[in-house]
Amino acid sequence: MILRWAVDVGHDLVVHAMPIDPRDQRWESDSPAYRVYFWQAVGSGERSGWQSEEWELTEADADEVLAWANARAGGRTMSIGAVHRDAGGVGLIRLAGIDPTADSGIWPSWASPRSG
Questions:
Q1: For the segment 68-86, what is each residue's pLDDT rounded down to a tens digit?
Q2: Measured in Å, how far apart are the chain's first and last C-alpha atoms?
Q3: Total structural domains in the chain?
Q4: For residue 2, what pLDDT is reported?
Q5: Contact 65, 4 (CB under 8 A)
Q6: Residue 83 burial by CB count (10 A; 0-12/13-18/19+): exposed, middle or buried?
Q7: pLDDT > 70: what percent of the chain?
Q8: H/E/C letters for each residue in the chain?
Q9: Residue 57 within a domain
Q10: Has residue 63 been placed in a domain?
């Protein structure tokens, strides 16, 4: 039997949580890296677009990365991801925020712009 919980997180959406079997885990990184992108709209009309400032953070836990990003956002939209490196190159696992330059059709339904 699988038990599922829905938790109200204070907005229109709900976080879904369920117990797991930890034996399915095959790897773990004890020294993760994170990338933080600060996005700012530039220009207007047909000449509008986005400008970004990018950072990679190491030797930090996720809560420290979120605090660092919030302290430096200055009202800019931000997106934060955990870095995953493999034979195919560098990829990101989205943790918070969205990339405003990406097609909004690929954003998860619960994702939203995050401003600091």
A1: 999 999 999 999 999 999 9
A2: 41
A3: 1
A4: 46
A5: no
A6: middle
A7: 86
A8: CCCCEEEECCCCCEEEECCCCHHHCCCCCCCCCEEEEEEEEECCHHHCEEEEEEEEECCCCHHHHHHHHHHHCCCCEEEEEEEEEECCEEEEEEEEECCCCCCHHHCCCCCCCEEC
A9: yes
A10: yes
Residue for token digits 């790897």?
27
Q: Residue 23 falls within a domain, yes or no?
A: no
pTM equals 0.79
Q: Which residue has the tokens 């600060």?
A: 38
DSSP bridge pairs for 55: 36
Q: What are the pLDDT digits (tens) for 48-66?
A: 899 999 999 999 999 999 9
Cα separations in angstroms, 4 against 21, 25, 31: 14, 20, 31
Between CA 35 and CA 39 the distance in angstroms is 13
d(CA 66, CA 88): 27
Q: Is 115 exposed, middle or buried (0-12, 13-18, 19+ CB in 10 A)?
A: middle
